[in-house]
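Exercise: predict the fold of this chain.
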Amino acid sequence: MSSQSLISDWLLRKYETAPEHKKLIRRLSKQKDKIVSAEAEKLHNKIFKELDCLDCANCCKSIPPIINETDIKRAAKALSMKPGQFKDKYVKLDEDQDMVINHSPCPFLDTDNTCFIYEARPKACREYPHTDNLEFMKHKKLHAINAQYCPAVFHILEALNSKP
């Protein structure tokens, strides 16, 4: 399947499958974390061979990432700013009192879906969608939500749901 086909399928089906994905996460919670995470990582690698994030970038358009002090320093340096200036211009506290980028879409997203500060992007962006590090189950509650934003997570959950 092509990158565009994966994205189109996700756009057509993401809302109708949300309840199934929540049930899947509950079902997976009863299985061994290492086994599920290993299977998810295999699926992650398979799907990302076909899916190009630059064809979508919905995460950058929809989800303000959590950002920490290290991220702020790195991004500020990349933009030739002081960390305080960066914070004032690009960071806010969300409802959970986490520091997040204050704009959606991300202010560093270019028109071609690339990131102005890619090498200095926040840790949350580097690790998204949390499906490839053998800690899939550590983030299990996020996956049902992220399937609404990311076609890769959607297709990983669909593949896991089709397994006996």
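Check your answer against the key: Residues 65-109 form one domain.
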